[in-house]
Hints:
Order of helices and strands: HHEEHHHHH
Structural class: mainly alpha
Largest sheet: 2 strands, antiparallel
Number of domains: 2
Helix content: 55-70%
Bound molecules: zinc ion
Radius of gyration: 16 Å
Amino acid sequence: MTDSAEFDAIRRRHHYRCCICRQPEKVTGTLLPVTGKTAEGDCTLPICPDHHVKYMHGFFTGTELKKIGISSEEYQHFLSLKKTGEQESGNGLSAEEKVTRTREETIKKIQKAQKMKMPKVHSDYKKEI
Ligand SMILES: [Zn+2]
């Protein structure tokens, strides 16, 4: 996708700050590339590790997606592609596993609540995604 020299230049252009929270790399740890969009087309943007995990697990809000210029439809498409890739490789970091598990548990709770006809439970979560 992007080689490291190119990404170095991108990070420099963004003053070594996460494009979501604007925290400097010194504070957040090494910035990671994410594909966003500008008026000119696809581009690579630097985001902090925290936001990268959030992005990769489908937790980005509408406001955060706006900052990297992608629509929620494009985000959902990206997530569905990513899911296929994950099943093939079958590995993950413990922090990421934790996020995935939390998400799965939340989904299970929603499903359970829906079965019990209590749709009010976790309505906020649904709004987020
Ligand atoms: Zn950030």
